[in-house]
Amino acid sequence: MGRLEGQSATASAASTGMPLPTPKSDTARPGCTHVNVADYERRAKVVLPKGEFDYFAGGANDMVTLRENRAAYRRLRLRPRVLRDVSSVDTTRTVLGERMAHPIGISPTAEHRAAHDDGELATARAAAGTCSMMVVSSSATTALEDVATAGGPNMQRWFQLSLSSRKNRTVLAGLVRRAIAAGYTALVVTVDRPVLGRREADLRNCYELAPRLAEGRVVSATGARIGRRPDGTMDLGQASDARPEAGKSLNWDDVHWLRTICGDMKIVVKSVMTREAAEEALAHGVDAVWVSNHGGRQLDTVPATIEILPEVVQAVRGRCEIFVDGGIRRGTDVLKALALGASAVFIGRPVIWGLAHSGEHGVTDVINLLNEELVQAMRLMGCKKLGDIERSMVAHQSSYHAKL
Ligand SMILES: Cc1cc2nc3c(=O)[nH]c(=O)nc-3n(C[C@H](O)[C@H](O)[C@H](O)COP(=O)(O)O)c2cc1C
Ligand SMILES: CC(C)CC(=O)C(=O)O
């Protein structure tokens, strides 16, 4: 994959004098046939066993939401400004008080070692090398301390916790203590997984994590696992080592409680999909809300995240930061999400496809590729910095149809 003409996103960050690590890029490798995220996905389908590929790629039930996450970006049209000086482009942004070289972070995804032997360690190195925020999943197949060590002191890192119905405060408090000690600066609290979505491909494939990886996961986090029980029925991923306090599911009070034990860590609530949820999150004192439908893997037929973003932006009225993930595969998707009010975006599956391709190098390539696409889209839109990206630069395709 060739580097696009002009300054890369991370180079532009360096030019602003920010003390960021030197980015490591492999994108200049000659003869590379992987020129977009879809190429990496096609490769992953070839190299991964069917069970693993379907687990990573799949969604819940009829996968309506999974497809909509992509389709909704395609329905949005861009409205460029012209004759602006875009000789240099600055993609830096401050997110939750931390200076980011660019606005594309890594969503928490489980089981990186099922995509590549180096798993989360490779992802962490790529995150550090590309100056990307990595959100480490509580269902990672590597201990959160080892992920932090692999990324090094400069890797920007947040830790994800699931408030599912089967976990209890003792387990969560242990994870929070470990995350603080390992230098994670925010807790991303996932709230759309009281139970696991029904992923029919996994049921058909009888998918289960290889036992050697499942053991790693018990050490890494809470021991949630998907697989076949001894009686032959499917276990859809409830935490096996965490019994709930009698008769009680985790709820909004637990978000408040997390605040009391998380020290200086910020709290982000992930999987806000309505204005009501955004308001509830704000009422419980969160630092940011994250618009997500879990990549279409939980409740099927909820809308695409990019369609929900304006509703959440309107409800929040600037009172906290807003992030979004789901279906982001192009630099233009990133630009659209920023125009509609996100402070930063996150990518899930593209990182897995990069891992499956070539571990750290593949993840580095995918992130650089998206950043290069973003920089190019900014230039073509007449935006020199992220702050130049405006709401009026995006319109729904139907607004043009109406005028025909
Ligand atoms: C294989 C896989 C595993 C995931 N594991 C987690 C997880 O452990 N915790 C979590 O909050 N979200 C998890 N997610 C959801 C992602 O954080 C993210 O919301 C989603 O992947 C974004 O959509 P995208 O894959 O289209 O970019 C997972 C998603 C995938 C595809
Ligand atoms: C089932 C979990 C281990 C991970 C998750 O949230 C997911 O696969 O979507």
Automatic annotation (TrEMBL):
<feature type="binding site">
    <location>
        <begin position="348"/>
        <end position="349"/>
    </location>
    <ligand>
        <name>FMN</name>
    </ligand>
</feature>
<feature type="binding site">
    <location>
        <position position="292"/>
    </location>
    <ligand>
        <name>FMN</name>
    </ligand>
</feature>
<dbReference type="GO" id="GO:0005737">
    <property type="term" value="C:cytoplasm"/>
</dbReference>
<protein>
    <submittedName>
        <fullName>Glycolate Oxidase</fullName>
        <ecNumber>1.1.3.15</ecNumber>
    </submittedName>
</protein>
<keyword id="KW-0560">Oxidoreductase</keyword>
<feature type="binding site">
    <location>
        <position position="297"/>
    </location>
    <ligand>
        <name>glyoxylate</name>
    </ligand>
</feature>
<feature type="active site" description="Proton acceptor">
    <location>
        <position position="294"/>
    </location>
</feature>
<dbReference type="InterPro" id="IPR037396">
    <property type="entry name" value="FMN_HAD"/>
</dbReference>
<feature type="binding site">
    <location>
        <position position="190"/>
    </location>
    <ligand>
        <name>FMN</name>
    </ligand>
</feature>
<feature type="binding site">
    <location>
        <position position="160"/>
    </location>
    <ligand>
        <name>FMN</name>
    </ligand>
</feature>
<dbReference type="InterPro" id="IPR013785">
    <property type="entry name" value="Aldolase_TIM"/>
</dbReference>
<feature type="binding site">
    <location>
        <position position="294"/>
    </location>
    <ligand>
        <name>glyoxylate</name>
    </ligand>
</feature>
<dbReference type="GO" id="GO:0010181">
    <property type="term" value="F:FMN binding"/>
</dbReference>
<keyword id="KW-0285">Flavoprotein</keyword>
<comment type="similarity">
    <text>Belongs to the FMN-dependent alpha-hydroxy acid dehydrogenase family.</text>
</comment>
<feature type="binding site">
    <location>
        <position position="270"/>
    </location>
    <ligand>
        <name>FMN</name>
    </ligand>
</feature>
<dbReference type="InterPro" id="IPR008259">
    <property type="entry name" value="FMN_hydac_DH_AS"/>
</dbReference>
<dbReference type="InterPro" id="IPR000262">
    <property type="entry name" value="FMN-dep_DH"/>
</dbReference>
<feature type="binding site">
    <location>
        <position position="137"/>
    </location>
    <ligand>
        <name>FMN</name>
    </ligand>
</feature>
<keyword id="KW-0288">FMN</keyword>
<dbReference type="Pfam" id="PF01070">
    <property type="entry name" value="FMN_dh"/>
</dbReference>
<feature type="region of interest" description="Disordered">
    <location>
        <begin position="1"/>
        <end position="31"/>
    </location>
</feature>
<feature type="binding site">
    <location>
        <begin position="325"/>
        <end position="329"/>
    </location>
    <ligand>
        <name>FMN</name>
    </ligand>
</feature>
<dbReference type="InterPro" id="IPR012133">
    <property type="entry name" value="Alpha-hydoxy_acid_DH_FMN"/>
</dbReference>
<feature type="binding site">
    <location>
        <position position="199"/>
    </location>
    <ligand>
        <name>glyoxylate</name>
    </ligand>
</feature>
<feature type="domain" description="FMN hydroxy acid dehydrogenase">
    <location>
        <begin position="29"/>
        <end position="399"/>
    </location>
</feature>
<dbReference type="GO" id="GO:0003973">
    <property type="term" value="F:(S)-2-hydroxy-acid oxidase activity"/>
</dbReference>
<feature type="binding site">
    <location>
        <begin position="108"/>
        <end position="110"/>
    </location>
    <ligand>
        <name>FMN</name>
    </ligand>
</feature>
<feature type="binding site">
    <location>
        <position position="55"/>
    </location>
    <ligand>
        <name>glyoxylate</name>
    </ligand>
</feature>
